[in-house]
Write a structure and sequence with these properties.
- Helix content is about 65%, strand content about 0%.
- By secondary structure, the protein is mainly alpha-helical.
- The protein has 2 domains: about 70 residues, lambda repressor-like DNA-binding domains (434 Repressor (Amino-terminal Domain)); about 30 residues, no CATH class.
- The protein is elongated, with a radius of gyration of 29 Å.
């Protein structure tokens, strides 16, 4: 397989469309039933399978219906902090904490009452 970076956007979309069609056929699902389950039009399914992915929302619905959301899971993962990033974050939170005055008001109040 060619490097993904050497492909044009339309070539990538075409390959994705072919893969979606292949998976749909392996699952023995018609375009009509996929469209109905995904709440999209049949022409949208046809366009996606032809490599014409115009609506990301429609694309996600089709992936969800085919059980393929795991293919894009790594894009949705939260990045893990390295130990040094975590240390920096904790220390910056400690530095920004408000500090209460040391009671100089109470000390003056006690002196004036005597």
């Amino acid at each position: 397989m060619d490097s993904i970076y050497s492909l044009s956007d339309s070539q990538i979309q075409k390959r994705i469309g072919e893969k979606i069609k292949s998976i749909r056929l392996k699952q023995n699902i018609t375009q009509d039933s996929l469209a109905e389950s995904a709440s999209v039009s049949r022409s949208s399914v046809q366009k996606i399978e032809a490599g014409e992915i115009k609506s990301f929302d429609t694309f996600l619905r089709v992936l969800r219906t085919l059980g393929m959301l795991d293919e894009i899971y790594h894009l949705c993962e939260e990045e893990q902090l390295s130990p040094s990033e975590y240390y920096d974050m904790v220390n910056s939170a400690k530095k920004n904490k408000r500090k209460r005055a040391m009671g100089s008001i109470n000390a003056n109040k006690e002196e004036s009452e005597w």
